[in-house]
Amino acid sequence: MLRTALRTLVVAATAAAAVTAANGSAAASAPRAPERGTTTASAAFWSCTVPSGYVYTNTRNTLSCSTSGGFRTQYYVQQPTDNLWSCVPASGFTYTSTRSSTSCSTSGGFRTQYLLRTPTTGLWACTVPSGFTYTSTRSTLSCSTSGGFSTQYLLRAL
Fold this sequence. Notes:
By secondary structure, this protein is α+β, with helices and mostly antiparallel strands. The chain has one domain. It is about 20% helix and about 35% strand. It has one helix at about 1-30; strands at about 45, 55-60, 70-80, 85, 95-100, 110-115, 125, 130-140, 150-155. The strands form three sheets. It has a three-stranded antiparallel β-sheet with strand order 1-3-2, with no helix packed on it. It starts with a helix and ends with a strand.
């Protein structure tokens, strides 16, 4: 009888310790909700539309954006930043490289992704953004959206 009581006590204590450890580690590893008014501008989120001033870096089909019961595209959106692979070019940025990816596809095929860069003098870029000119060009595959050669520009701020 004493042995049974001790065994029950040890099992209960072990279970309690396991629950406490699991809750403690879950609380420590679970992402905390940002405090009100402290969300960073570049925080990414899934959205049914791409808001003005944002780009998207991934897509998925979901029923949660549908207004008619079918699957619709949902976009992983964030504000553009330097060195971000984006599914669309962004205003105020240029891009220095492209790649084919299924991440941007709304239908399962390959689509172009763009490596966004903040324009600066001396940057080889695939486009010439407003406020810049170029001092040299080169032919490259880095900027291609169709698999062939395209032009890259050596930027200079105006």
